[in-house]
Amino acid sequence: MRQTTVIRYTTRPEVTDENAKLVEDVFAELAQARPAGLHYATFRLGDGTEFMHVLVAEEGSTALTDTAAFQRFQEGIRSRCAAPPQFEQATVVGSYGFGDI
């Protein structure tokens, strides 16, 4: 069964670009590894310090968290955030051009 998770957080302004670079590194590694069944997107919102990640994967999948780049991203996430990240489960009502979800 597929599970959709939305994660939102705001970074401290002085580390926003560092956070974006770490996210870009995750996508570069995913582009090489091409894990099956993983749909993942990250958006920079508002003034650029707020981020939203949308993850759609099989329940229990570790395809994202197993990547070295994601582990590096996770290492300092709490120190880069103005407040702890907020996780929410979501249900896809519809999508167009957002992968095969």
TrEMBL record:
Q: Which domain of life is it from?
A: Bacteria
Would you tell me the protein name for this molecule? Answer: Quinol monooxygenase YgiN
